[in-house]
């Protein structure tokens, strides 16, 4: 390249700005306006081979003109699932909060990292304030924490910190410094606990699965039994995970009773409140998490129930002695210089296992500023009200059957088509019932009318799990949902 070429910028600012403006128009029109419009499809389903053809994904030697790129942006939105659509009930996250989305845009535009005050002064201060607010809702006056790339990673942080708490030498010496460890979680807990055990070298064989009652809640007496069992096998019980809001049934483990067991055996208590943590914002429903203040650590995902936008997951610690820092620091001198001109206590990056860390606090902070704690509480209460309405409707409708009475906002139910009604005593009833939800799901996806998840659960065959968190949803959408299941499944 000629040296002369370096005298001028290689990026033309004006066309770039023009492109951004036009792309934003598309984003608002196709993504936000159409995405939230009930008369538009939730998803324009295509088989993978057809979608590959439509999208023309190959990357080539030469670039394309802006008009073509804007068409491509349109296509990306068109063929993606609209999780903000009022008839999207498929995941634990849904909806679109304009303030949170603005926070996402600003975060992307500034493109910085959360690791040092020098590179992210606003966000270092902001993260601290948001985490403190979450800790206060748990009932902790002191503590520590960080935002993590998702609840699974937050849970893994908890295991790593708990192991370090028991065996600080393991940081240098590895597993040689640690006896055979044992950890405990309920049969209904999230699979990230098993993944964490594998990832951290603890081993999935050393995860003791504690029995649950008929509502899916951990049985504390069985926890104690399993701890004693592990001790008799010469294992070292170091970690109990209690779940507040299990993934499928939405069950809350009895944290206060579990805390008693942990105190008796001196075991680290982690509460995975990735899903149910947001109920702490509600005066009416926060009792579900009674005892959470006795936890040593908590996972809480505002990106699920609060609509903060993926991803926003807080790992919160009651310890305020700096264990996060001690457990994870590597003291890289190129980044965490000790002779900086400002107070380096604000350089929090060495507390984490990451180097660069995305800013996840702004979207939550801006959304909280816009709605206030009261507004967030109303959002949580509205989600409970949706579920109550749906549970009552299901009881009134022939062919619909609740798996359990919902305690939280997970609505698990079967649709029994007319051909199966009254056939409960037939030997193949369960087998046939289990085939209903997948067919209805296929039909709704291909039609694009709505989305809802299904799964087997414990000994139960496939049932639907509907989650409604999006405040844009109305009673009409909920009635449509039940009618549509009936329309799509009545011939099965
Ligand atoms: C109870 C529970 N914990 C942890 C997770 C994992 O969260 P993430 O998807 O952010 O990794 C989930 C996800 O659904 C969950 O339901």
TrEMBL record:
UniProt protein name: Cysteine sulfinic acid decarboxylase
The UniProt subunit note reads as follows: Homodimer.
Classification via Gene3D superfamilies: 3.90.1150.170, Type I PLP-dependent aspartate aminotransferase-like (Major domain) (3.40.640.10)
* GO BP of this protein: carboxylic acid metabolic process; taurine biosynthetic process
**Family the UniProt entry places it in:** Belongs to the group II decarboxylase family.
Q: What superkingdom heads the lineage?
A: Eukaryota
Q: Does the keyword Lyase apply?
A: yes
GO terms of molecular function: pyridoxal phosphate binding; sulfinoalanine decarboxylase activity
A single cellular component GO annotation: cytoplasm
Which Pfam families does the annotation name? Answer: Pyridoxal_deC
Q: Which cofactor does it need?
A: pyridoxal 5'-phosphate
InterPro entries, per the entry: PyrdxlP-dep_de-COase (IPR002129), PyrdxlP-dep_Trfase (IPR015424), PyrdxlP-dep_Trfase_major (IPR015421)
Where is the PTM N6-(pyridoxal phosphate)lysine found along the chain? Answer: 304
Native species of this protein? Anolis carolinensis
Keyword set for this entry? Decarboxylase, Lyase, Pyridoxal phosphate
């Amino acid at each position: 390249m000629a040296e002369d070429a370096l005298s001028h910028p290689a990026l033309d600012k004006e066309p770039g700005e023009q492109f951004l403006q036009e792309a934003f128009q598309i984003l608002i029109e196709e993504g936000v306006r159409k995405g939230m419009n009930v008369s538009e499809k939730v998803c324009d389903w295509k088989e993978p081979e057809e979608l590959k053809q439509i999208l023309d994904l190959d990357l080539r030697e030469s670039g394309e003109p802006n008009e073509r790129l804007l068409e491509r942006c349109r296509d990306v939105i068109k063929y993606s699932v609209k999780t903000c659509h009022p008839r999207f009930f498929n995941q634990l996250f849904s909806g679109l909060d304009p303030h949170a989305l603005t926070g996402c845009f600003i975060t992307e535009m500034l493109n910085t990292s959360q690791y040092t005050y020098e590179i992210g002064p606003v966000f270092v201060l902001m993260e601290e304030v948001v985490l403190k607010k979450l800790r206060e809702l748990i009932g902790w006056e002191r503590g520590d924490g960080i935002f993590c790339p998702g609840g699974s990673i937050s849970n893994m942080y908890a295991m790593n910190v708990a192991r370090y708490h028991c065996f600080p030498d393991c940081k240098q010496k590895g597993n040689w410094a640690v006896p055979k460890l044992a950890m405990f979680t309920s049969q209904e807990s999230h699979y990230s606990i098993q993944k964490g055990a594998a990832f951290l070298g603890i081993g999935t064989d050393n995860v003791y699965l504690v029995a649950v009652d008929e509502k899916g809640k951990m049985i504390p007496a069985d926890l104690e039994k399993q701890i004693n069992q592990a001790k008799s096998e010469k294992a070292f019980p170091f970690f109990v995970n209690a779940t507040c809001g299990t993934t499928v049934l939405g069950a809350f483990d009895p944290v206060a009773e579990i805390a008693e067991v942990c105190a008796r055996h001196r075991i680290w208590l982690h509460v995975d409140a990735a899903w149910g943590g947001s109920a702490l914002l509600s005066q009416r429903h926060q009792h579900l998490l009674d005892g959470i203040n006795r936890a040593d650590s908590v996972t809480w995902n505002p990106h699920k129930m609060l609509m903060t936008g993926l991803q926003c997951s807080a790992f919160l610690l009651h310890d305020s002695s700096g264990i996060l820092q001690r457990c994870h620091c590597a003291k890289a001198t190129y980044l965490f210089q000790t002779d900086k001109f400002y107070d380096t206590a604000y350089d929090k990056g060495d507390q984490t296992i990451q180097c660069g860390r995305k800013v996840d606090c702004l979207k939550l902070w801006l959304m909280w500023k816009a709605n206030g704690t009261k507004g967030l509480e109303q959002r949580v209460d509205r989600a409970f009200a949706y579920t109550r309405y749906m549970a009552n409707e299901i009881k009134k409708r022939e062919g619909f059957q609740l798996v359990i009475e919902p305690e939280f906002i997970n609505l698990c139910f079967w649709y029994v088509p007319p051909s199966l009604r009254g056939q409960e005593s037939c030997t193949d009833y369960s087998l046939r019932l289990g085939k209903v939800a997948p067919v209805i799901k296929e039909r709704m996806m291909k039609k694009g009318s709505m989305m809802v998840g299904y799964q087997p659960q414990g000994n139960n065959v496939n049932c639907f799990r509907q989650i409604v968190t999006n405040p844009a949803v109305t009673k009409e959408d909920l009635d449509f949902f039940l009618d549509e299941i009936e329309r799509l499944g009545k011939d099965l």
